[in-house]
Fold this protein.
Amino acid sequence: MFERVRAWVERACGFLYNNNEFYSFFVVSGTTEDELKEIIRRRGMESYFNEVFGSPKTKGILLRELMEKYKFRPSELVFIGDAETDWAGAREAGVSFIWRRASDQDHQLPGFKGPSIPSLTHLSTCLSEISTP
């Protein structure tokens, strides 16, 4: 019924824990919402996320709903994703995007010129560069 729980992205747990006071965190995924919530529950991650948004809606629609519900402007959000559909959803919603590429990925997202990180080790630096005019 539920997908196998994958390993944490390197430094994800530490980043969420150390920055929970400074940022609001959401999950926006193509996985069904019920499955996402179960995965997050099994990992003991509920306290890190304000809310979980999942399929069947597209990521662009989910991001727009998140902005409407929480009164965020696109400039106040950054979508960190590892798939072309993540980047497409961020573009559709007008949200900044950071590509979290797997360390073994040697290809680029077609047409993507933005920031790319292999783990969350340098995420704070990447976020500060995005927010700097």
